[in-house]
Amino acid sequence: MTETSTAVQVRELTELADLEAVYQLFDAIWRPDPNNPPVTTELLRAMSHSGSYVSGAYDGIELVGACVGFFGAPSERTLHSHVAGVSRQARSRNVGFALKLHQRDWALQRGLTAIEWTFDPLIRRNAYFNFVKLGARPKQYLTNFYGQMRDEINGNDESDRLLVRWQIDEPVGGVEASATAIALDRGSDGRPIRTELPITGPVAVAVPGDVESLRATDFTVAQEWRLAVREVLGGLLADGARVTGFDRTGWYVVEREGVA
Question: Which parts of the sequence belong to the N-acetyltransferase domain (predicted)?
């Protein structure tokens, strides 16, 4: 069991009642189509029993966060972290960080060297968490990876994702970088603005301030951001560029291969 400064306790879950609580927590967070839940109790039971990773973060007796992962290819010694969520009431309390540190310890004890997962590149708090707090780095831009997810968070948006890799045999933490040249900007009207790439140096790629709210209030603009980030960030990564950091105000910092 891991206890952190958040005053939550994180532990591995195996009992059926605990796994049902994880299912109920995820259902409350995502509010998915009943035919397409993030997990089921039966799946969690099978994963837990077969040695995969299922953990929960508790505030007293209340489950406030959970994380689920399974092994990648044995030759890569990698854990794929499939889904993690924190209740609305427990956000901004570092519960997600506590879950990730527990997952890291669990994986290291089993001889693994890396954890991979996907996240929506438009959600800037997750980008900051992944790249700056943890020190993960993106491997690949995945277009509409899960198809239409049919839940309250994703709505009707396409499910583009960044696949990231966290080298857990290295120190935790990344850098909050910045770049003066801009490849994708924010307009005064909140819409994305593509700009011409400079010849040299790192470039910054903007994301919207709160895409989850934007999907509910102006889906057309949210879609413009999806397509713009796909074209600019996805295009840069496809050409061999690397995300080297993230600015808290909502900018990916990207170094281009072979460009000084």
Answer: 8-152
Strand 62-71, strand 161-167: pairing: unpaired
Which residues does 182 contact at the CB level (< 8 Å), separation at least 6?
Answer: 195, 203, 204, 206
Alpha-helical regions (H) of 89-171: 95-109, 124-128
Residues 50-105 pLDDT 10s: 999 999 999 999 999 999 999 987 767 899 999 999 999 998 899 999 999 999 99
- pLDDT confidence of residue 156: 86
Nearest CA to 221 among 246, 196, 193?
193
Which of 167, 194, 212 is the last residue before a domain boundary?
A: 167
Whether residues 58 and 163 share a domain: the answer is yes
120 shares a domain with 187: no
Question: How many other C-beta atoms can be found within 10 angstroms of the C-beta atom of residue 87?
Answer: 18
Degrees to nearest 5, angle at CA 220 with 217 and 225: 100
Contact 92, 125 (CB under 8 A): no
Tokens of 42: 């039966």
Indicate the number of domains in the chain.
Answer: 2
pLDDT one-digit tens code per residue, 230-253: 999 999 999 999 999 999 899 999
| Domain-ending residue, one of 101, 132, 167 | 167
Tokens (6 digits) for 102: 């527990």
Give percent above pLDDT 70 in the chain: 96
Whether residue 142 sits in one domain with residue 215: no
The residues near 253 (Cβ < 8 Å, ≥ 6 apart) are 177, 178, 179, 202, 203, 204, 243, 244, 245, 246, 247
- Residue 87 is predicted with a pLDDT of 96
- What's the mean per-residue pLDDT of the chain? 92
